[in-house]
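TA notes, week 10

Several of you asked for a full example with nothing omitted. So below is the full record: structure tokens for the whole chain, then the designed sequence directly under it. When grading your own attempts, check the secondary structure regions first.
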């Protein structure tokens, strides 16, 4: 049996999580996955009930699960950390040591007018400029006096090396077999210099992979002008966050951007976008990102000793989502369709039963 912990989150989180769980139930029945799906509260509901947006008991359950499905959270609207307003995403990435954030961007067929994007951003997930992830205790951002804010950026050889290893392992499975290392070592000479040195060491062990090095500003420009030149991008936390959003929008929509947070023994599927409270409850939320993320989780489980049925379920999900995206009546408004969350979900489920 495989235990999955489902965390709905805030805003549109409950809607797209419910849609994704409906798809997952069909996959479980069709491929005999033996899933045990459990649920726990995070975000504003947890804050109201427990005084924190992510209780310790939820973290403990996540550590015991085979995989986690995380809905979007409204952490920008949370109270200060001292009042329980922790970012569940950051906490789980750090506590579960989910050091690799894998974000594919591929232009779906049938949308029209989109750039020919087919790349993956492999983003370091546990340190960098993110103040909630780079200290053992406390925050890496602080205010010594009014009018002065300081932040610490942490880059380590260990984290740089293992994210590079993830990127090169992924590149070996793709036809182009190309890795672009994105950095800003011309300015951040020590921190990005350390990152770049560690990636170069890993690259030396993979002579069959073509390697480019590119400054982050140039990478952003080339993504817009010629996204087809990229295959696998490996970079630090904040640069990867920005570039992966750009790539997903070029390919179609953040609403389609799958995202897997992976470590050595644990993984978490998470929609690439935010909680979009302005459309919560309207039926307009695109469930595609979280459905695609769960497909990635199924592939990850298959690669970590799971049955072949998990790989087949992941592939079937990818194919069914492609069918739904080709149907304007099923697509949600953010990608030029007239459908609703429910319509798109139903079309994915229908496609799963017809292939």
């Amino acid at each position: 049996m495989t235990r999955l912990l489902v965390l709905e989150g805030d805003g549109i989180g409950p809607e797209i999580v419910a849609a994704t769980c409906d798809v997952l139930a069909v996959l479980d029945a069709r491929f005999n996955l033996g899933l045990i799906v459990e649920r726990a509260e995070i975000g504003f509901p947890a804050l109201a009930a427990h005084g924190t947006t992510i209780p310790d008991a939820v973290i403990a359950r996540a550590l015991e699960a085979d995989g986690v499905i995380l809905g979007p959270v409204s952490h920008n609207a949370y109270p200060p950390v001292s009042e329980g307003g922790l970012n569940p995403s950051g906490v789980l990435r750090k506590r579960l040591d989910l050091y690799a954030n894998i974000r594919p961007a591929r232009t779906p067929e049938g949308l029209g007018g989109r750039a020919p994007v087919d790349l993956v951003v492999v983003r370091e997930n546990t340190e960098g400029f993110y103040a909630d992830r780079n200290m053992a205790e406390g925050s890496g951002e602080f205010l010594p006096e009014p009018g002065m804010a300081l932040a610490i950026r942490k880059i380590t050889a260990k984290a740089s090396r293992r994210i590079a290893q993830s990127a090169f392992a992924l590149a070996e499975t793709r036809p182009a077999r190309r890795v672009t290392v994105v950095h800003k070592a011309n300015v951040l000479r020590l921190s990005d210099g350390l990152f770049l040195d560690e990636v170069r060491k890993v690259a030396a062990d993979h002579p069959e992979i073509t390697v480019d090095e590119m400054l982050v500003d140039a990478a952003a420009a080339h993504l817009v002008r010629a996204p087809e030149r990229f295959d696998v991008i490996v970079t630090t936390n904040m640069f990867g966050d920005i570039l992966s959003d750009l790539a997903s929008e070029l390919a179609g929509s953040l609403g389609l951007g799958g995202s897997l947070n992976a470590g050595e023994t644990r993984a978490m599927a998470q929609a690439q976008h935010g909680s979009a409270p302005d459309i919560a409850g309207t039926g307009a939320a695109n469930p595609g990102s979280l459905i695609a993320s769960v497909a990635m989780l199924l592939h990850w489980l298959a690669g970590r000793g799971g049955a072949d049925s998990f790989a087949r379920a992941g592939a079937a999900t990818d194919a069914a989502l492609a069918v739904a995206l080709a149907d304007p009546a099923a697509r949600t408004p953010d990608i030029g369709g007239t459908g609703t969350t429910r319509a798109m979900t139903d079309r994915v489920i229908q496609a799963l039963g017809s292939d």
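The chain has a mean pLDDT of 95. Use that as a sanity check on your answer.
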